Every structure is written in C-alpha cells, then in structure tokens.
C-alpha cells in the first residue's frame, strides 16, 4: 500500500514514521486514540481519488481528517489504515457576488470563509466554537452548528453543492448555484453530516447572505436556571429570533472569567449572552425588548456591549468555555445533547442531579435558544472508578434526552463516542436504513469504518 502511495504522491505528502504519525492519532475527543499506517496530504481532488483507489485495491481503511477539532472521535484513525488529511487543500476558489456564493476546498478554515465573505459585505453564518481552527470540510462532514444557529441554522442550510470522491475513487459533483433545484434525490444532503462514511468531500459551494447592518450584544445574569430558561421562552414567544442566545452555568462562568478576565459576575448562577443583528431600527427594538423580558424575569444584572470590540470580547468569552474548563481537571469530556426548548430547564436540572448522584463535576453551557446543551465532565481518565461513574452518568443523560424527544447529538456527530447509543434513538427501521445506505455507497466498508455504527 505504501509503495503504491509513493507512486502517486511526493515524499513530503506522506508520513509513515511512528513519531510523525502520533499527532494524527487523536482529535479533540478525550480518551480516544489509534495509530494509522500512513498519513497523506493530497493537494488536489484527483490525488484524493488516487489514494482512495489504492485503498480499494489493497483493502485498506481510510479516515479523512481536517484540523482534528472533532469531539466525537470521528477522525480517529483505523489501525493500519490511511489518514487522508485535507489541510493542504486550503484555497478559496471563487466568491460570486452576483449569486451570493463562495466555493472553497475542504481544507479552508471556517473563519477564513467568513472573513472572505465580509470583505464583500457578506456573511457566512455558521460559526462553530472552533471556527478559528476547524475546516469547512469537517463542518460539512459533521453538519456543524454554532452560536448563530438559532437565527441562521447550521451548515446544511448553506451548502448548495459539493464535489465528492466516492468509495470507488470516482468523482461526483452534487448540487449547483440555483436557488431552486428538485431534479432527482438531494444527494448532497446525504453526504452532509455523514462523517466521512459515505464519501470524501473535497470542494464545497456555499450560500452567503448580506452582512447585517447592525448588531447589539447583551449579557444578562440570573440567580437560577429557571429564570434564564423563562427569559428564553418569553423572547421566542415575543416573536424575537435573536442571532445568539447562549447559556453558561455558574461553574462555566467562573472558569471563563478566570481564563478571560472580562468582568463576568461570578456570583450569578446562570448567564445569558443575547445578540440581535439586522437593520439598526430592528436591532434597537429587539435589544430593548430582550432587556425588558430579562428584567421581568428578575435578572441580577444587564450589560450592553458599548461597541463592536466589547461585543466580540463577550462572544469570545463564550467561545472559550471549552478551553477554560479544560484547565480544571486532567480530562475534559465535552458532551452535546439537544432537547425541545420547552424542556431545557428540566434537562439542566436533571444534569445537575446526575452530577450529584454520581459525585461528578459537570459544567454546563450551550445554545439555549435551540435547545442544545454541552454538559462538560471535568474528570481524570487515569481514575478508572471515576470514569466508570462518568459512563453511567452519560448513559442516563442520553436516556433522558431521548425520552424527552431530543437527540444524542446536536452538532458534534456520532463518531466513535456515541455509536453505542445511536440504536436507542433510531429504534425502528430507520437504524437498518442507515446501514443500507452505507452498504450501497461503500460496499467494502473502507470509508471511516466503525464510525456511527458497526456493520
């Protein structure tokens, strides 16, 4: 296999030495690692296709990787397999201001896409917390969300087309720049969120929007989660859809403040980061309404960002939650569950009770506006007894989430970390349907095998 790879790629595009392979043996997921036989860095779609053909001829499993920020173990290598790392395919190929689209290779960093759009007065809305590091290919593979998801949606809502290398090495283009297109199955949607198990996305055609004229950011603190949750419910009931509606519990507030030092009130039990964007008059009205609603729900304090720099500072503090929490204990397990918004407060209380039941330290934050919570376990993987309690707690949280009509993952994906729980959510013929799709597109089971489910 390695000999064949050396026939199609330059020496500097292939890693085979053990010490060179180690950094590509893990991603952002705690306690998961494996070593591949080779890591390759293709620079064109044709090179990706050639590597996939070698994998098919030699029956070698393939795992595709971007920046390795994933939190479900989706890019963990398969032993003796090939890792196809797409970070060198990092060109923005076109910005079409007439059709409001951008075409990029899979290795372009997400922040670079929004920056390029901004230079044209446009915006690429999906903004995962890792947007300064993660690649657009990884975002598509996991259908990533972000802080702006409540108003703007997730990655799927902005993918108009893509180039995909199939399991047999053939190259397919799916989609186009048309606003309407119902010709045939929506095949591009099949690959979005497929976690690299059906094909390798090499280029993406993205939809852009006009950049909002104005933005206002508000920080509200509360004495308990019920008040914060009721504030969210009242904002939505008032027919206000904020750009951002984020939640932090007290543990997260204190860790973020210690990390970022921006003056967060550490005595608060809950914090909401609320942001409105759009025409100036609309933003002013929405911001005033949200402040009034928070006040009616006994907010301890309200802080309005004085300018764009302070607004960015507040948003950055929220984005730093994972990094801030990771400083507390040796192992940080960032989870990702979503429940209907009406059940958010109950879900937060349940997670708090689970922490007490199993004597664990669990911080909680997330996208309260769309029901997406990130219970974060602060633990130590070198303590088997404690990790066992973590596993019991996770199982109970997933069970509760499904019973509440929620999902075991809102934006991180299933990968290795959650595949054991997927049958609980797909309890009918839908689970076998997933496997039928996989077998149809990857009959040899060589593309990211063992992720999502086992065949």
Labels describing this entry:
single chain; 455 residues; alpha+beta; Uridine Diphospho-n-acetylenolpyruvylglucosamine Reductase, domain 2; Uridine Diphospho-n-acetylenolpyruvylglucosamine Reductase, domain 3; Alpha-Beta Plaits; 8-stranded antiparallel β-sheet; 5-stranded antiparallel β-sheet; 35% helix
Explained architecture:
The strands form four sheets. Strands 12, 13, 14, 15, 16, 17, 18 and 19 form an eight-stranded antiparallel beta sheet that branches. The protein contains 16 helices and 19 strands. It is α+β, with helices and mostly antiparallel strands and 455 residues long. The mean pLDDT is 96. The two termini are 24 Å apart. It folds into four domains: 84 residues, 2-Layer Sandwich (Uridine Diphospho-n-acetylenolpyruvylglucosamine Reductase, domain 2), CATH 3.30.43; 119 residues, Uridine Diphospho-n-acetylenolpyruvylglucosamine Reductase, domain 3; 109 residues, Alpha-Beta Plaits; 97 residues, Alpha-Beta Plaits, CATH 3.30.70.2740.
- What would you call the shape? globular
List the domain count as a whole number: 4
The CATH architecture designation of the largest domain is 2-Layer Sandwich
How far apart are the termini?
A: 24 Å
Question: If you consult CATH, what is the topology of the largest domain?
Answer: Uridine Diphospho-n-acetylenolpyruvylglucosamine Reductase, domain 3
Provide mean pLDDT, rounded.
96
> In percent terms, what proportion of residues is strand?
15-25%
Helix content: 25-40%
CATH top-level class of the largest domain:
Alpha Beta
Major sheet summary line: 8 strands, antiparallel
Number of strands: 19
Unreliable parts: none
Count of DSSP H/I helices: 16
Structural class, by secondary structure, is alpha+beta
């Amino acid at each position: 296999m390695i000999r064949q790879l050396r026939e199609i790629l330059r020496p500097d595009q292939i890693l085979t030495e053990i010490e060179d392979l180690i950094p590509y043996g893990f991603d952002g997921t705690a306690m998961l690692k494996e070593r591949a036989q080779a890591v390759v860095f293709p620079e064109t779609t044709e090179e990706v296709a050639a590597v996939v053909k070698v994998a098919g001829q030699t029956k070698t499993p393939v795992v595709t990787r971007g920046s390795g920020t994933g939190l479900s173990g989706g890019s963990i290598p398969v032993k003796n397999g090939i890792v196809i790392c797409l970070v060198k395919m990092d060109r923005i190929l076109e910005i079409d201001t007439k059709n409001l689209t951008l075409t990029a290779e899979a290795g372009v960093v997400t922040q670079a896409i929004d920056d390029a759009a901004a230079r044209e007065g446009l915006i690429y809305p999906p903004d995962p917390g890792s947007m300064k590091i993660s690649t657009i290919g990884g975002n598509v593979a996991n259908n990533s969300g972000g802080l702006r998801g409540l108003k703007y949606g997730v990655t799927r809502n902005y993918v108009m087309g893509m180039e995909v290398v199939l399991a047999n090495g053939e190259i397919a283009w799916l989609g186009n720049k048309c606003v309407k297109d119902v010709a045939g199955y929506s095949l591009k949607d099949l690959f979005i969120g497929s976690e690299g198990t059906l094909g390798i996305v090499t280029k993406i055609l993205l939809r852009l929007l006009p950049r909002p004229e104005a933005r206002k950011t508000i920080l509200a603190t509360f004495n308990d989660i019920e008040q914060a949750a009721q504030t969210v419910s009242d904002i939505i009931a008032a027919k206000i859809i904020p750009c951002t509606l984020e939640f932090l519990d007290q543990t997260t507030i204190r860790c973020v403040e210690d990390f970022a030092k921006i003056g967060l009130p550490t005595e608060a039990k809950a914090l909401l980061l609320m942001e409105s964007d759009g025409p100036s008059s609309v933003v002013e009205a929405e911001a005033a309404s949200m402040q009034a609603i928070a006040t009616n729900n006994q907010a301890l304090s309200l802080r309005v960002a004085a300018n764009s720099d302070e607004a960015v500072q507040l948003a950055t503090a929220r984005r730093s939650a994972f990094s801030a929490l990771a400083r507390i204990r040796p192992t940080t397990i960032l989870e990702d569950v979503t429940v209907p918004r009406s059940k958010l407060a109950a879900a937060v209380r349940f997670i708090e009770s689970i922490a007490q039941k199993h004597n664990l330290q669990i911080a909680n934050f997330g996208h309260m506006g769309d029901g997406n919570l990130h219970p974060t376990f602060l633990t130590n993987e070198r303590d088997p007894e404690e990790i066992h309690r973590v596993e019991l707690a996770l199982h109970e949280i997933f069970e509760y989430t499904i019973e509440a009509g929620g999902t075991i993952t809102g934006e991180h994906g299933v990968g290795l970390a959650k595949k054991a729980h997927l049958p609980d959510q797909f309890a009918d013929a839908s689970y076998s349907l997933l496997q039928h799709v996989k077998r149809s597109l990857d009959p040899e089971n060589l593309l990211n095998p063992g992720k999502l489910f086992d065949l």
